[in-house]
Give the backbone structure.
Amino acid sequence: MSQEHNMRRVTAIRNGTVIDHIPSGQAMRVLEMLNIDKSTSVPVSMVMNVPSKKMGTKDIIKVEDRELNQDELNRLALVAPEAHVAIIRAYSVAEKMTIEVGEEVINVVRCTFSNCITTNPREPLPHRLRVVSKEPLTLRCHYCDRPQDLEKLIGNLKSNGCFL
Ligand code: ZN
């Protein structure tokens, strides 16, 4: 199936963000990571299980009238590190953004352990999680060295409305 055909599966958008090459089945998690839900006022379209030469199948998300910022890209990297992000302006790709997971994830998500030193308001430390492995993504807190559960990290976002 041609790339062009895949692109036409989702209606072209005038302005906004296209997140392509999301691992199949991860689109919902990506939306959660970006804090996009029914309270989001802009149109969001999502296609799942699109045939992909490279990946077998993939998911694609289009968010209209919204350009992802660096914070959002950093969060996206945790659930879809291979995703391709394109900013669309006037129906064409204005910017391609790369996402990557480095050696450390700083001020993106917070340690999930409530007795970690980073949760003490009198100790304003940056939130640092060490990347132990990329495939699959394994994170440990820089301070308490405990392994981080990705579902809990996402859960924090939902309960707090923000990560930090
Ligand atoms: Zn910690």
